[in-house]
Automatic annotation (TrEMBL):
<dbReference type="InterPro" id="IPR000792">
    <property type="entry name" value="Tscrpt_reg_LuxR_C"/>
</dbReference>
<feature type="domain" description="OmpR/PhoB-type">
    <location>
        <begin position="7"/>
        <end position="102"/>
    </location>
</feature>
<feature type="compositionally biased region" description="Basic and acidic residues">
    <location>
        <begin position="107"/>
        <end position="120"/>
    </location>
</feature>
<dbReference type="InterPro" id="IPR016032">
    <property type="entry name" value="Sig_transdc_resp-reg_C-effctor"/>
</dbReference>
<feature type="DNA-binding region" description="OmpR/PhoB-type">
    <location>
        <begin position="7"/>
        <end position="102"/>
    </location>
</feature>
<protein>
    <recommendedName>
        <fullName>OmpR/PhoB-type domain-containing protein</fullName>
    </recommendedName>
</protein>
<dbReference type="InterPro" id="IPR001867">
    <property type="entry name" value="OmpR/PhoB-type_DNA-bd"/>
</dbReference>
<feature type="region of interest" description="Disordered">
    <location>
        <begin position="107"/>
        <end position="129"/>
    </location>
</feature>
<dbReference type="InterPro" id="IPR036388">
    <property type="entry name" value="WH-like_DNA-bd_sf"/>
</dbReference>
<keyword id="KW-0238">DNA-binding</keyword>
<dbReference type="Pfam" id="PF00486">
    <property type="entry name" value="Trans_reg_C"/>
</dbReference>
């Protein structure tokens, strides 16, 4: 659909939808939204106050793909959830379709807050541009503070003892009383990272008593198909009646003056689980859009740091022992300058480069076997050399397809943002870690897990496919679309899978698959 410049941006209530950048903002802060949900909202706004049939919406959102009415119903439900009170604009008309009530706004200003002041507006210029990054950052944190915190986060990859400092910085800018960061290897029942500030030994011990309740609520959250990037905020998900009767709230949180909790998931795969937990004290009040925005801003950097910490197995890396430490890794590691020129490789990376199946080192430059992956790596290295705060998701889990099949993943760590990282190799601007792609590494091959589920529990081929797809970490709506089934059918199939395998929640299924890979192949 051709859109004129005047129609590039829609305002309704506290929301602004920008078609050029693909961003939705509320009260000046970017709101996470799935691509299909974004397309649905865009079509509705292009056709305000008009009854739109289900067939028209399905054609607009899914184009030539064959989907059922259930897929549309799920997407409509997701849109109403995102819009909150504004979701009442979207009305269902039985046997006719949907209508979105909307009066075009004359300006794009956000509504003032209770104090009569307007919140800082979000610049919806193209992502990656200097103006876009500056506006998003300035609306949430002063640029100097953001750069400092990101630098501290990346330092933790080389020195895990610095995580307490990083958590203190994060808690401070989010006006939080305490924070927890954890990384668990589910396949080997190992805790790789468990750091906290503000809780103390007694607080952590008390919180551990309530982990079944915490996991139950988070399990329900994942069962709704919520995107991994969307944080779980207790005050927005749990009714007052539950909070009044919750043992966790009443005996653990309330005595410590904690009035709200935010869970931001960094990794959620069959083999690993990592999350950041932020607690807000009574004097600061519940979590607001600002804290959610800061969490989204730090998410890609935390995810990269935790992913690489896992690769390094939480080892501290020092210049004097650089070669020795890196040679112990199962991942290949390449240090490069801003042009991608190779300055150092560990033993495994040297073998990879010699084989040339996934990566090459022709003319001394790091490149992937495919043009697209090479361009993504080069772009991430250039950004790392210029401004690590602008990396966001670039260079994280870059898919490296082999010329004769197979796949690896590459993660780019910026090196010139602090004295600690510069000291490793002064001329290097990035370290590229190359190894097994998430979420399943080679010892958890799909064929092995299929055989385990079918022989051990009698799952059918269709049930096995569903179990592996759901456990991969994607939300249920995406899995249903991929398998060509309705959301209701997927729920019924999962019920049978849970019954046959003896698990009660998705987290139990994930743990079951992780154990299967570990027990059958060993450490």
């Amino acid at each position: 659909m051709a859109v004129s410049p005047e129609e590039n941006r829609f305002s309704f209530g506290a929301f602004v939808l920008d078609l050029q950048t693909g961003l939705l903002a509320r009260d000046g802060f970017v709101v996470p939204i799935r691509p299909k949900t974004f397309t649905l909202l865009m079509h509705l706004l292009h056709n305000p106050n008009r009854v739109i049939s289900k067939d028209e919406l399905i054609a607009a959102v899914w184009e030539r793909a064959v989907v059922t009415d259930d897929a549309l119903t799920q997407t409509v439900r997701d849109l109403r959830r995102i819009l909150g009170d504004e979701g009442a604009r979207l009305q269902s008309l039985p046997k006719r379709g949907y209508v979105f009530a909307h009066e075009p706004a004359k300006d794009n200003g956000a509504k003032p807050g209770l104090d009569g002041r307007h919140p800082p507006s979000v610049d919806l210029s193209p992502p990656g541009s200097a103006s876009h990054a500056a506006s998003i950052h300035a609306a949430l944190l002063p640029p100097a503070d953001l750069s400092r915190i990101i630098g501290v986060i990346y330092d933790c990859t080389l020195d895990p003892t610095r995580w307490e400092t990083a958590l203190s910085e994060i808690a401070a800018v989010m006006d939080a009383e305490s924070a927890i960061l954890s990384l668990n290897d589910l396949s080997r029942h190992r805790v790789i990272i468990h750091k906290n500030v503000g809780w103390g030994e007694e607080g952590i011990a008390e919180r551990q008593k309530h982990m079944p309740e915490i996991h139950a609520r988070l399990g329900e959250w994942f069962a709704t198909g919520a995107p991994l990037d969307e944080p779980y905020v207790a005050s927005r998900r749990l009714p007052p009646s539950y909070l009044d009767s919750s043992p966790y709230v009443q005996t653990c949180l309330k005595p410590r003056g904690i009035v709200d909790i935010l869970h931001q998931f960094l990794i959620y795969t069959p083999t690993h689980l990592s999350e950041l937990v932020i607690s807000r004290h009574l004097r600061h009040g519940p979590i607001t859009h600002r804290e959610i925005g800061i969490s989204a801003l730090l998410l890609p950097h935390l995810r990269r740091a935790v992913t690489i910490t896992n690769v390094l197995d939480a080892r501290s890396v020092e210049r004097l022992r650089l070669a020795e430490t890196l040679d112990l890794l199962h991942y290949g590691v390449v240090l490069t300058n801003s042009d991608g020129r190779i300055l150092h490789t560990n033993a495994r990376a040297k073998r990879m480069l010699d084989e040339g199946r996934f990566v090459t080192g022709r003319s001394g430059l790091l490149a992937a076997a495919t043009t697209r992956a090479s361009q993504e790596l080069a772009r991430a290295i250039r950004i790392a050399a210029r401004d690590e705060a602008a990396l966001d998701g670039a260079g994280l889990s870059v898919r490296l397809a082999g010329e004769s099949g197979g796949e690896l993943a590459a993660h780019v760590l910026p090196l010139n943002g602090s004295d600690l990282r510069i000291s490793l190799e002064p001329a290097a601007v990035a370290a590229v870690f190359i190894g097994a792609p998430p979420p399943l590494d080679p010892v958890h091959s799909k064929g092995t897990l299929e055989k385990f589920l079918r022989e051990r529990f009698g799952l059918s081929k269709a049930e096995t496919d569903i179990a592996l797809e759901v456990a991969s970490g994607d939300d249920r709506a995406m899995v249903a679309d991929r398998l060509g089934v309705s959301a209701a059918a997927l729920r019924n199939d999962l019920g049978r899978i849970f019954l046959k395998t003896g698990v009660r929640h998705l987290s139990g299924l994930v743990r079951l698959l992780a154990d299967a890979g570990h027990n059958q192949h060993g450490p």
